[in-house]
Specification:
alpha+beta, Immunoglobulin-like, 4-stranded antiparallel β-sheet, 3-stranded antiparallel β-sheet, 9 strands, rod-shaped
Length: 356
């Protein structure tokens, strides 16, 4: 064993500080331990914690004393003061991005009287009335479509009245269209009713029959021709008679020169038994050897036909001579119209036997 005293164990810097008993005052020692610590409360440690301390509550005055920390008493005294880290200059402030102008504001939707959205205007009634009124007015003056004008006009009137009422309540913006449709609807109804009356009277008077409004003979219609010597009478007193059918006695050379082998002559007489003077400038006399009536026979009488005025009680007769190209033809159809307002009357005339 060595005579030298045992050296103290090396100091552990991480060991908790040893309890130092209170001293009456400063005294010499290897190190300055500072002023004495205050006495500890019963049941507590020097840091002011413990079960007894928690049960007793806070000390008088309501404040817990801060825990006393002892300075480091190792060799060399307390912890040395280390200089802090130098302050580094901060980053410079960069200018912010420029403020962009915001989007322009859109106008808000109109609000209703109670804070809701304003409903769309109910312009359908006024527009429908206008369309129906226009179409009805056009159809009402057309003969074959006049029957559609009245229903469309009545519908336009109804829609126009409803459209006007809606406009008065402020629910539509087209009161003018509704009024125009109403007026056109009344016009279409009146015109259509008038046109229907005219059509009814025309049908009753026979103006729209197959003769297109012309006067028709009392007999001698197409398909039921008259015979030689019979008379067709028209409304107004004008009479037409075809008679005196005979062979003209033409030489064979004359007949062949006109493109036929036979010929016939007949007399047409017009008599005015009415009270009005008749115009004969548009009178027409035609003869056909074919049943279809496509090729009229050539008139070689050398006259222009009827013309001039026929006074009441007057009478006028003309002779017509035609060439028959086919010798086998046994009859000829003669059509006579006294004027432009008269329908044709028809006769079936036999071809006379040529004189030997």
């Amino acid at each position: 064993m060595s005579d030298q005293p045992d050296s103290p164990p090396p100091h552990n810097p991480w060991a908790p500080p040893a309890d130092v008993p209170p001293q009456a005052g400063p005294g010499p020692g290897p190190a300055d331990t500072g002023p004495p610590l205050p006495p500890l409360a019963p049941g507590t440690d020097r840091y002011g914690s413990g079960p007894l301390f928690d049960q007793q509550g806070p000390p008088p005055g309501g404040q817990y004393p801060p825990p006393p920390y002892e300075p480091y008493t190792g060799a060399g005294g307390g912890y040395p003061d280390y200089p802090g880290y130098p302050d580094y200059p901060g980053y410079p402030d960069y200018p912010g991005y420029p403020d962009y102008p915001g989007y322009p504001g859109y106008p808000g939707y109109p609000m209703g009287p109670y804070g809701g959205w304003t409903p769309a205007p109910r312009n359908g009634y006024g527009l429908t009335a206008l369309v129906l009124g226009i179409v009805g007015s056009v159809l009402s003056v057309m003969c074959f479509f006049a029957v559609l004008g009245a229903p469309l006009g009545i519908a336009a009137i109804i829609f126009g009245i409803v459209g006007r009422r809606i406009a008065k309540r402020g629910e539509s913006t087209n009161p003018g269209q509704a009024l125009a449709g109403l007026i056109l609807g009344v016009t279409a109804t009146v015109l259509s009713a008038g046109m229907l009356v005219v059509i009814g009277v025309s049908v009753g008077n026979g103006w729209l029959d197959e003769s297109d409004g012309m006067r028709r003979p009392d007999q001698g219609s197409y398909g039921s021709p008259l015979s030689v010597g019979e008379t067709a009478e028209y409304d107004g007193g004008l009479q037409v008679t075809v008679d005196d059918v005979r062979d003209p006695g033409l030489a064979p050379t004359a007949k062949s020169a006109e493109g036929g082998d036979s010929a016939m002559r007949f007399t047409v007489t017009l008599k005015n038994t009415g009270s009005k003077t008749e115009n004969l400038d548009y009178a027409d006399v035609s003869a056909y050897a074919d049943q279809a009536g496509d090729n009229p026979l050539k008139d070689i009488s050398g006259q222009d036909g009827f013309s001039g005025q026929l006074a009441p009680g007057a009478e006028r007769s003309l002779d017509f001579t035609v060439v028959v190209p086919d010798p086998s033809t046994d009859s000829v159809e003669v059509d006579v119209s006294p004027g432009d307002s008269y329908d044709y009357a028809y006769w079936d005339l036999p071809v006379p036997v040529p004189a030997s």
